[in-house]
Amino acid sequence: MNNIFIDVDYAQIYKHGQKIGGDVFLLSRNPDNNQIVATLSDGLGSGVKANVLASLTAHMAHKLSFSPIALEHSAEIIMDTLPVCKERKISYSTFTIADIRYKDDMENIEVNLVEYDNPSALRFSGSEDIKWQKNKTELKREAAFKKESISHSSFKMEIGERLVMFSDGVTQSGLGKSLPLGWRLDGVRAFIKEEIERNPDISSRELSRSIVQKACSLDGFSSKDDITCVVVYIRRPRRTLIVTGPPFTKEADEILGEKIRAFNGKKIVSGGTTAQIVARLFNKKITVDLSCWSPDVPPASKMEGIDLVTEGMLTLSKVVSALEKKENVAEMPNDPAKKFVEILLDSDQIHIIVGTKINEAHQDPNIPFEIGIRRTIIARLRKALEENYIKETSVEYL
Question: How does DSSP classify residue 179?
Fold first, then answer.
């Protein structure tokens, strides 16, 4: 795995009283082309109608970004396709597209950024604001009452740099309430600077959530619009090791111990038998952790040197389900599955060691070993982490 990671995450709060958002964010990676595309679209109004409009725009932009067409030309195609509201004489949706390209060694990270009518994106090197050149293309659409333009820029990002994109629900928060003119771009910029100064290693997930929560607080915790923030952060990777299942032979236990000792990062042991093996290898005691529990998941345990010790298949299944559904972690029950998910979301590179000893309790003898339950769950876990959260994963069998 590489020693540089592109951390992309977002946070969102719907307009107060709405059950569906008018802001739509899409994130995809094409590993064959070393490309990541992040697309944020804001539909006119709120609720279902705005969501449909934003979804159409975001998916169109997303597809075109992965095509051979130049990004600025793709944006013009989108604008030619987007209708104009007959009453307000403005576009039915806005968008921001960040097309990120990189080399196999993660050096020379290049970003193509296209913005239409969303608040201007912000860039930071550490906590310092970065100014950069943007080119504008004027649009000629007769139905629109004002001049429209698409902003396009290209730049390189280095370790420690961030790109922050958001909908106008952020910059207009507090409008007419705590702030007569709203939070505005300068207010958002100052807040981000303070957050990074307070925590220089703050992750994209934490920073985007902090910005969205602050915007909501300015609206008196009753959001007047959909509030969405996206953060791209170039940094050293945070690593996690998951160990699940006992090794195929007892002789391989020592190999497992050496791999755990040598790993630099957070460590999770999933499975009672596996935990007993690790405790014996490290001569550590296992104690039950009752600080978090739910009737659906067996309680976690504590072991010195291990960040999380959980039961095996039930907990793993719930973790995979939460990741596949992209559940809001804050709304999950306070149980071991939630802790498991939190560690994974705060990590960038996840390495999984899967023990291959057959557990009769979880294995149908009529099913070939290669498609046993544990392997199936691990395959789903990797897919959810890679496709939904752009994490890097690897697996080895022992």
Answer: B
